[in-house]
Amino acid sequence: MVRLAAMQIIEGAGRWTPPPAGTANDWVEHLKTPDLSVGTYCIPAGGIDDQSPHTEDEVYVVTAGRARIVTPDGEAAVGPGAVIFVPAGEEHRFVDVTEDLSLLVFFGPAYGSRGGAATA
Fold first, then answer.
1. Banded model confidence at residue 112, pLDDT cuts 50, 70, 90
2. Which part of the chain is the Cupin type-2 domain (predicted)?
3. Which end of the chain has a smaller Cβ tally under 10 Å, C or N?
4. pTM here?
5. Which CATH number does the domain 30-108 belong to among 1.20.1420.30, 3.30.565.10, 3.50.50.60, 2.60.120.10?
């Protein structure tokens, strides 16, 4: 994507989308500049979060659904409105997804810009 020169409305960001057939989850990047990227990550109820740690800091905003997030330091139940910060390199995973989970995701700097990025 190209760096934007003006304000932009990001249609559909954070909206639930069923993963494509045969996949565990769905990641769509909506916006990418050198310093920031924004996307939507969806995991269906009962689904598996197969992501790996990222090389960028990350903020999740839960827009729909319920699950637990697990890190080496603990775990917490999350639902609509929860905001979660995960520092670069920290193992994390959503488990016990009891309702279709939709997350608005912000990466700083942009996702994959530090190299070695895994699936969102």
1. confident
2. 41-105
3. N
4. 0.88
5. 2.60.120.10
